[in-house]
Amino acid sequence: SLPEYYDEPFADSSQIPTFLVSQLARREVTVSLSGDGGDELFGGYNRYLWAENIWNKMKRVPGPLRSVTGEIIKTISAGMWDSVFSILRPVLPAALRFQHPGEKFHKLAYMLGADSPEAVYKSLISQWLSPMELTPGIAEPETPLTRAMQNSGGWDFRRRMMAWDTISYLPDD
Description:
Layout: H1 2-5, H2 15-28, H3 38-42, H4 46-58, H5 63-74, H6 78-88, H7 101-111, H8 117-125, H9 131-134, H10 144-150, H11 157-168
Helix pairs in contact: 4-8, 4-11, 5-7, 6-7, 10-11
């Protein structure tokens, strides 16, 4: 049966629900569709809304002012931001009571230096806050994502992000 073959390196978080739905559907349905790929195709990730909103607000502020603001935020460690937020938590609105505020503030600080919607998107999806600092003097290698970013003009920002995720994130998910 399928679960016997669904072990590492092919394990997937959707394998058990897909198997159970397939077993149930086998009795009543002739076709079953998996949900994999739906977020990328239909805009299901929150980052599509966040990145677009962030960029639309950020681009109104001059780049140098954004960069200075980001640098000021980074002078306070993520741990210190966490401490400040934990003290203020009782008086903060629910929307600002999120986990790991220091990490999020630092991510925002790096994002403030973005000079394009593409840079905002990359800062949201990057594991590292500033990946080029890890390899100084080395240019970013060409990848399916960088090629797609160069060739996706004409679409609105949200559609471009969905296309980039389909090309770069979905195949490895």
